[in-house]
Every structure is written in structure tokens, then in C-alpha cells.
Amino acid sequence: METTDLLKIASEHGSPIYVYNSEKMISQYKRLQNAFQKVKHLRLHYAVKALSNISVLKLFNSLGSALDTVSIQEVKLGIKAGVPAQKIIYTPNGVSVEELEEAVKLGVQINIDNLIILEQFGTKHPKVPVCIRINPHVMAGGNTNISVGHIDSKFGISIHQMPHILRIVENTGMHINGIHMHTGSDILDIEVFLHAAEILFDAAENFKDLEFLDFGSGFKVPYHENDIETNVEELGEKLSKRFNEFCKSYGRDLTLAFEPGKFLVSEAGFFLAKVNVVKQTTSTVFAHIDSGFNHLIRPMFYGSKHEIENISNPNAKKRFYSVVGYICETDTFANNKMITEINEGDILAFKNAGAYCFSMASNYNSRYRPAEVLWYNGEAHLIRKRETFEDLIHNQIEISLETNVVESV
Ligand SMILES: Cc1ncc(COP(=O)(O)O)c(C=O)c1O
């Protein structure tokens, strides 16, 4: 997929628009598979939350990927995309018992992350195999919003509560078939990950009928040239060796599972937005795009930095710009960044826009959510239409109100 293809997509389908390169998704999937080729049974669950378009789910299904889901709606999307329920792990956090029951009916792998639910669930469904999400209390992840394994985190059952887990399992006679952890996103230090893995191995020793160990995800991807990324090859080498040793001592070949989201789709995505206004002020030059944090919230939510390129004018001289949106609050995508000269009407491409971008988009300011395009087999395929005014009011109910205006004299 070339820059000219991106420009053509923007001119054909309008802006703002998300474009995903399936070739990059496929190569990232294979890279991870290769890194863990020494493991006999590897299962990669694509994390639906990162980018949940059904065509993307179908793409991963075609590669043989399993899915990681966190809501019943993600489960239903996965099943609709053709993924067998047994290949879907469902890891909710603080959901209602009714939602869990629905997941049981759909036949997905349940992953439980709190003691009360574990007890209730085991009492009601002792025969349904359950995975347990452990919190190893290892601090990993890019920032506090995406670091979830630490002591104050709401996720998982504390490793220190293992005696309680074992008591519940014994009392209910429930079947634990997997142990899970997810320490957070953007893990830089492989040693930290391996340390958390040791805690998982120790935890696993307590259960005799395991089928898999799920190490979650958190692989960091590069956001700019020379940026650091998780060395998945090195991690693959080290963790595979340790995992194989563990299987030997456990007495059975288990499945090693991961749940990558960002690693598989982040770099595949581009967000294209048009510059509506170039505004010179006394302090900077603002490039106002036809979008805002309603479509791409990561820079404001996580402080994430998406590289921005002016693909309409890539060879011009670079100048300083602050790229901002049209929202009625501060929505700064980039502050005084060097970008090739911007004119009104130019298309700016935001990189790393595959993961947690469209899936976090909203209708704030009553704007339409953008269209999405998948670049597949050398062609652009529209995989989501831009919303319309009808979509905005579709579920709204207008009630009749009495007119109660007091005429002023
Ligand atoms: C339980 C779980 N698994 C997998 C993921 C995917 O993480 P990443 O996108 O960093 O690969 C997340 C992300 O929040 C998660 O909470």
C-alpha cells in the first residue's frame, strides 16, 4: 500500500477515514508465530478490543487466529465473523452474572478474575471449564492506564489469594483448565515479563488438569523511527525454552496462549484527515483537521504520540505546526511538530492508527464516526460506511412536549 493509494482512498471515500493494511497484520501475526515456533501448541488470540471491525476479525480467522474478548458483544461479533466459540476466550472485568451466563450458553472459554464470581460460578457450573486470571503484581506497561498487573490494579485475582482460590476449587469441584495473566501494554523489559511468567508457572503447579497457560499481551510497537519495541524474537526464544521445561515437569504438553492486539494491528493503520483551516497565531501555526478526539482519543487519553505526515505535500520544506481538531475542547494531536508545509485541503496521515483508535471513537459533538477501509489483496475495500444523520438519531426517541413558553410583554 503506497501513499498514492492512501490519497486515492481519501478522495474516493472522503475524510476522515481509517485505512488498514492487511499485509502488515498478516506479517505481524506470522512474526509472532515464528518467534514461538519451538512451542508445540501455540494459540494466538487476537484482542478484539484493539480493532473490532468484522472484516478484520474474518481476516484473523482466516489465518487460524483465536480471539480474546472482554464483552459479550465482542463474543457475538467473533462468532458472527465465523470464529468457533471454543476458540474465543472471554475475559470480563466486573460484569454482571447475567452476562457471564450468556457467555456460558454461547460456549466460549470463560476467564474469571475475582473470587466471588469464581465461587458463584463454580457452584452453579462445576463442569464448565474455567480459566483463572491471576494478578502477578508485576509492574509493567507504558503508563498507569495501560499497566494492569500492579498491586492497586482492579484486574485479576491476587497471587497472594491462591489459598482462597484453591479452597473454592476444592469446595465446588470445578474444573480449572487455564491460568492467565496480563500485566499491561507497552512492555519494554523482557526480563519483567519473564519474571511474571515464573509467577504464572508457580501458580499453575497448583492445578492438575490444565490445558493452557495464557500470558496475555503487552508487546510494545514502535511509534517512530528508531523507537524501541518489544523484542518478540528474544522473548520467543527465552519463554519457549522455559515453557517447554515447565511442560516437561508438569507432565503434559500444554498450549501457550497470547492475546495480542496492538502488536497485530497498530502499525497497519492510518488515520487520514483533511486540513480545514491553517491558522497563524502569535505563538504557533495551527492546522485544524476535520476530526478531533471523537475519532482519535489516544493522544489526549494516554498522551500517545502518533506520527503525522502531510501526504498531499510530502516533499515540501518542513515547518512547525500544532495539529488540532474541531472539538469544542482542547484536542491537540501534536504540539509544534515539524511537518512538510500544510495548505488547506491537504490530507494528513496519522500513523499507528490501527489499535485503540476507531474502536474508541465516539459521536461526541454529534459528529459521525468515520469510514474504514481494509487494504486487502492489493485493493481497497470499504469495510464500514461513514455514519449519517440517520445513524445519529436512529435510537433516539422524540417525545411530545407541551409548549410552555411565557410570552414576555
Ligand atoms: C486481558 C487483555 N488481553 C489482551 C490485551 C491486548 O493488549 P495489547 O493491545 O497491548 O496487545 C489487553 C489490553 O488491554 C487486555 O486487557
Automatic annotation (TrEMBL):
Keywords (A to Z) from UniProt: Amino-acid biosynthesis, Decarboxylase, Lyase, Lysine biosynthesis, Pyridoxal phosphate
Keyword presence, Lyase: yes
Q: Where is the Orn/DAP/Arg decarboxylase 2 N-terminal domain?
A: 24-266
Tell me the route in metabolism or biology where this protein functions: Amino-acid biosynthesis; L-lysine biosynthesis via DAP pathway; L-lysine from DL-2,6-diaminopimelate: step 1/1
Q: Do you know which SUPFAM superfamilies this protein is assigned to?
A: Alanine racemase C-terminal domain-like (SSF50621), PLP-binding barrel (SSF51419)
Instruction: State the family it belongs to.
Output: Belongs to the Orn/Lys/Arg decarboxylase class-II family. LysA subfamily.
Described purpose of this protein according to its UniProt entry: Specifically catalyzes the decarboxylation of meso-diaminopimelate (meso-DAP) to L-lysine.
Report the protein name in the record. Diaminopimelate decarboxylase
Organism expressing this protein natively: Psychroflexus salis
Taxonomic lineage: Bacteria, Pseudomonadati, Bacteroidota, Flavobacteriia, Flavobacteriales
